[in-house]
What we know:
By secondary structure, the chain is of the alpha+beta class. It folds into three domains: 2-96, PAS domain (Beta-Lactamase), CATH 3.30.450; 97-173, Orthogonal Bundle (Helix Hairpins), CATH 1.10.287; 177-336, Heat Shock Protein 90 (2-Layer Sandwich). It has helices spanning 2-7, 26-32, 41-45, 48-59, 98-133, 140-173, 184-201, 221-239, 291-296, 303-313; strands at residues 12-15, 21-24, 64-72, 75-86, 89-96, 181-183, 205-209, 216-218, 244-255, 260-269, 317-323, 327-335. It has a five-stranded antiparallel beta sheet with strand order 2-1-5-4-3, sandwiched between helices. Strands 7-9-10-12-11 form a five-stranded mixed beta sheet. A two-stranded antiparallel ribbon has the order 6-8. Helix 5 (98-133) packs antiparallel against helix 6 (140-173), helix 6 packs parallel to helix 10 and helix 7 packs parallel to helix 8 (221-239). The longest helix has 36 residues, at 98-133. It is extended, with a radius of gyration of 28 Å. The protein starts with a helix and ends with a strand. The model has no long low-confidence stretch (mean pLDDT 92). It binds adenosine-5'-triphosphate (ATP) and magnesium ion. Adenosine-5'-triphosphate binds next to helix 8 and helix 10. Magnesium ion (MG) is lined by residues 230, 233-234, 299, 303.
Amino acid sequence: MKRLVQAIPLPAALIGASQRVVCTNSGFDELFGEDVVGRYFVAALRQPAVIEAIEVAFRDAAEHTAHYLGRDGSTDATFQMFARSVGEDVLITFSDRTVTEAAVRMRSDFIANVSHELRTPLTALQGFIETLRGAARNDPEIRDRFLQIMDQEAGRMTRLVDELMSLSRLEQVERTRPTEIVSLKSVLSAAQEGLEPILQAAALTMTLSLPADEITVRGDFAQLQQVFTNLMENAVKYGAKGGRIDVALSTMSHQKLLRGAGAVVTVHDYGDGIASHHIPRLTERFYRVDSHRSRAVGGTGLGLAIVKHIVNRHRGRMKIDSIEGEGTTISVILPE
Ligand SMILES: Nc1ncnc2c1ncn2[C@@H]1O[C@H](COP(=O)(O)OP(=O)(O)OP(=O)(O)O)[C@@H](O)[C@H]1O
Ligand SMILES: [Mg+2]
């Protein structure tokens, strides 16, 4: 019996008719410690739901399950415990559900976020439609102003839907590395050109420091342009007060983060910067440091999540360095 329990690939233990633990395997020992054999299972397992399931399993032949909350190193872990009688004894096994439960939670958070982001502009639109039908019906000036705001709100929804679609497309191709060879100088120039109108509107100058030699990487032109557009656009939106943005491209024969040769693009702004505790979370979907301010400039918190997916697909790295009050530098490192 002991050898059988040891061969089970999940944490497992056998509890005897005496209510004491008869034998365990190494997975179980990792979860509960090494000195459980011989102890009463009630004292060793402690959690009421688990104990109850085992007690029932002693009385009938069916399988009984319970949730077990454990620790995996320093993080919380959830397990499902199965208890089933084997002759006079009860065999218990534990299956780790942490990852599945996190995925379920992420999915429902995601849906809640999307709904919330769509509801805000929809509520605004409905309010304006109502006013246009009633009080503002015969006032051309108010009508024009409202139509302009409605146009903005509809634009915000379109943008959100576009970003969500590009995220889902990216998830599908993330595992396949692009095969084209693209010039990073052309990618950066294209991104800058596309932003010319908003640079002018914000009275910002953006300098591109490009090396004399051509620098190429294996990549997807449109996706890389998206990466630098998103980063430059953030620099405009959140760093405008610095008056200028510096973008630089260089190569390194040995890039530490890549353990090999790579190209580095840095986008540097001189704005307010980002407090360090926010930095690890910026690439989460819908994460915004100051959601009021970000929403006011039309942000949905998906830009950096998209950047991260594209950089992953290119087997590259992204690094965010920021000093509060001085500015932010975002580096994208791509393997050659
Ligand atoms: N250069 C920057 N300086 C200061 N804060 C920044 C900078 N770049 C990003 N942030 C912060 O990180 C948050 C997330 O950025 P992200 O690009 O993912 O979303 P967004 O700009 O709010 O919306 P979207 O890009 O989807 O329009 C922003 O809301 C902003 O608070
Ligand atoms: Mg952004």
